[in-house]
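Bug #77: duplicate submission created two jobs. Keeping one. Sequence:
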Amino acid sequence: MKLKALLLFLFVPLICSATDINVDPSTFKATYEGAKDGDVLLMEEGTYTGDINLPDGKTVTLKAAEGAEVVFGVKFRGSDASVTGGGIIMEGLVIKPNDSYFMDLTYGDIKTITLRNCDLSAINRCFLRTNNEGHVIDKIEMDRCIIHDCGDGGYNFIYPKHGVREVSVTNSTLYNYKGGESFFSPNSMNVDIDMLFTFSNNTVYKWSKASKYAICNTGNKVGLFSEYTFRNNIIYKAGVDGQAPNILNTTGGYLLAEKNLIADYGTYNQASAADTEISDYTLADFGLTNIPFPDPENGDFSITSESPMATAATDGGPIGDPRWLKNLTNAVHMNVTNSPENAGTVTPAKADYEAGSEVTITATPNYGFRFKQWQDKDGQILSTENPYTFNIEKDMDITAVYSSVETYTLNINKSGDGAKWGNVSLTPEPVDGKYESGTSVTMKVVPNSVTSFLYWNDGSSDAQKTVVMNGDKTFTATFDVVPFIVGWDFSVSEPRGNRPGDYSFTTDNTGNLQLYEGDGKTTNWGASTRTFGGIERNCIRRYTERADMDNPRYLVAKFVVDGYKNIKVHSLAALDNACVHKIQKMQYSTDGVNYTDLSSIDMGSGTESSQWMVLEGTLPEGLSGQVYVRWIGDTESGLAGEPSDSDTEGFYLADIVVYADNEQKDDHEAPKLVATSPEAGSDVASASGNVVLHFNEKVKAGSGDVTINGKAMTPVFGSKTATYAYADMGYGTECEVVVPKGALTDLNGNAFEGTTFKFTTMQRPQPEKKVFDAVVAADGSGDFTSVQEAIDAAPDNSSVPYLIFVENGEYDELVLIPESKPFIHLIGQDKEKTVIKHTINNGGSSDVGYEWSTNNPQSDNYGYSSVVEVNASDFYTENITFYNSWGVDNQSGPMGLAMYSRNDRMTFYNCKFRSYQDTWQTSSRNMADRHYVKDCWIEGAVDYFYGGGDVLLEGCTLYNVRSGSVIVAPCHKEGTKFGYVFSNCTIDGNELANDNKTALGRPWHNAPKTVWLNTTMKIGIKPEGWNNMGAIPALFAEYNSMDADGNPVDLSNRRTEYEYTDGDTGQKVTGTCKATLTDEEAAAYTYEAITRGTDGWNPRKLMEAVSAPANMRYDAASSTLSWDESAYAICYVVTDADDKVVSISTDTSFKPAEGTCGKFTVKAVNEYGSLSEGTTYETTTGINGTGSETTVKEDIYNTSGMKLGSAVKGINIIRRQMGDGTVKVIKIMK
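Kept job's structure:
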């Protein structure tokens, strides 16, 4: 709001004799395209969207009408350099394109790009990028602008291939460009242009991410007699701590730098300067140690007339953006310090104010400290609130007081033959090697292709485990090595050529990887991280130019093979555009000149791989010395599609490993079993983990399966181990491992005699006691009154669940969970009474209800997609109704989502999803994204469950609300393994839907997959079962469908032939798809197969019930209700007769308020937030609250950990020290 007010207050109208034309969002584009040179479009209030080009041969001004707030989401796009001679002037606009580029142009000569009094944000990469050389921009001008919160996608803010004659930035503020590069950086050589660069009276804060960049980064790309002027600026801090980007990077030129205050930033880098004159300030010149902006992170850079900076400019005025100057008539001074001094930071640390002003101060504790209170200079407590807002009437010295927190060390050791290459990640990472007491730390084995994780020092073998830091702790992870010679995982991007192995088995055979042009010259590859089929890999790209694809680039790895046998070269390949040969070859050579084909893959047709493809081959025996392996496209196979002339080869290669066994002489002796893990008789094994067999020599697979409780396991062979992963054995389960004779042999075929042993999995561990991290209550009795507020408070990048409890109530809001917030667990009190709802649809301007459309720039819903949108992984929710009011209340389209789930490992339990059209869209982000949906109600009429991913729905009800309803409309990518799997679900509906016209689904796009297993159909389904739409399904089938009485449904008329019209060619496409599954086919759709993936995901554990509280009793003497502890519960939720939550506590007792009703229900909470069944206790009279408890000491805290003198309204944390020495914690609402 400060920025908006600043812009409007200081708006200076442009006086112009040109024609003024009033426009609004609906008339803007047509008017703009018809405008004449010099016309001024006066823009009425609203949000403007769409794409336009720069004018052709004319300059047009876009200007906010007086008093209008114009949000300019329009983007400038152009692809024709014959359009030339135009210019654009923008005044008073809020420029917010929400795109990588605001101006992305191929265009001729440009007269001017001018911005005056504009606010710019949400530009992910470049404000301006031009893509063609040989043209000129006369001037780029920015005056009185606010540029902020841009650059998350990198690149330079102004990045032209055009030559630029002049750049002028004046009286402006630039801040929070933390991921961006330079402000101005030309992208081509224009050394014949001596440019003018003026940067004056600007405030710059946290601009640029690295020291190699600069505000002006011309290098050697402009004329040697260019002129650079920097005057009266404040430039403070890089976008990334520890970096020092320069003010100027150039060669030659004239530099004048005067009266600039530069702190925590770089300097002027001017090679071969024509002339240099610098007379800048330092902090010491003003008696400062930092620049005391009041709130720079949020855009407040005010300086007062009392500051020496207020008169430090060349003209005697303020340095920096002059609009931030505040003239004080009755100045008071505030100074804020920390105690202890190193315990935290305060904002602002010092400032001047007009007496009576409202002031907000914020304390940020350093690691190992917690904020306690604010004190005045006499030590009197001012407040325990943080932030603290008050009115300042006099000079004040304030101290932020902190208390220390115990910190502990977590040591991770590695052992075993694979320890050199094994790795364990810690989330969160320690700070200076320490964790605060109570921190939950996730230790996760980082998989790689040359190690196998065996076990932890405590005997467990889960690849991921969480530990609560309540003392110094040490863990040891044991790894074995998968025998290999050399490998490249590209975990770091450099070097991008002539690269030795990222890991090698011996130090004298490190290998080498190089990229070559088609003519044999060396070059560098591109390095990146890409995701295909849901699997993210560090990888390299070949980047052959389209014109050179007949003689393409190729990669060569070389290594020595002496002393090895069974040599297999493994790699993963993928493509992301059509400029890739369909057939990709792996070849080998012994001289680096003459190559022989080893293997190949067909990458098919298309523009993007649905998954990483394995490209591997085994070298012939008998090779010696150095061997060369080449990856190259088959030029005779054709390209994957029709690339444009500007495309470069989109071929990616990842995970290159050369596996091999050491040559061994045959000793004619069978391998001997040295040890097992778990040991025979162990009772501490993980419920999901590894069985490891340790031998005296290397072993391999023979004939027969190794089993656990009769189920076959797949081996991974290490140097002297065979490791078998198992899953979901349950707690306290006896497991029998059987290794038949001959199932394993040594490398020479000598068979192991076999063995059998038993172990027992561990008992279910008791989780740490804790209450919910956040409570949402519509009546204000919780931590938050909206779900979104609770989401916003959740930590980023967590690896442990953040538990949010939502009390009964209707929450009319849009909820957006960003990708940065995984492990949100959203737990409702009662799915019938806990409702997240909103009126929203996705209609066009001609649709009824456009007022609430996500596509309507005038709607508050603009830019959203659904009532709830989940972009983060590992989301879990239960007991909530997600309700799209537009769909339910109007019983009509257009599409109105209640839920949009857009990531992997999503779990939904006992929820309702209600709308009409497109109720729930599942993830099409990656084809391997998984959802598990249990005991849910999904309601709609048209395509109301649609999208992609592997989704298992068990025990759910699909409720149809009109005649001719269509349930699913999937668009699974080709290669999706399972698609939509409905298991033991029920299809039901209202009277309108029970007319034998309901369809199971229709194929939206791509290669849809849906199967219905053991379905109860309470309403009639149309005989053909399925409809046509926009694709040929990969699989639309049923198994064991039954009517409401349990009788088999006649499937003989189900559709097997499909057709659609191709939108590009207009041609009809036909195809077939089976309609039923065999017993054997249906049996393949197991919970484990669908959910397990490569990470062992087990969503059922999230809803694993704990027992309801037992032995409820009331002690009248102490007025206390108590119950027995429920095993594995972390806390308890107590509700009264009106279902109002009255306590959330780790304690097994509750003392009702005096005079409250004597009926209470208690539910236990498992470690993931899931609620047990409730136990209700009712007395015959009200509870009077008399008597006493054996409490020795009781302390009261607020939710920030501040100790209070007495309970306050809202959430209170009560810590009681009991007579028996125990400590109990309870959360109460007042």
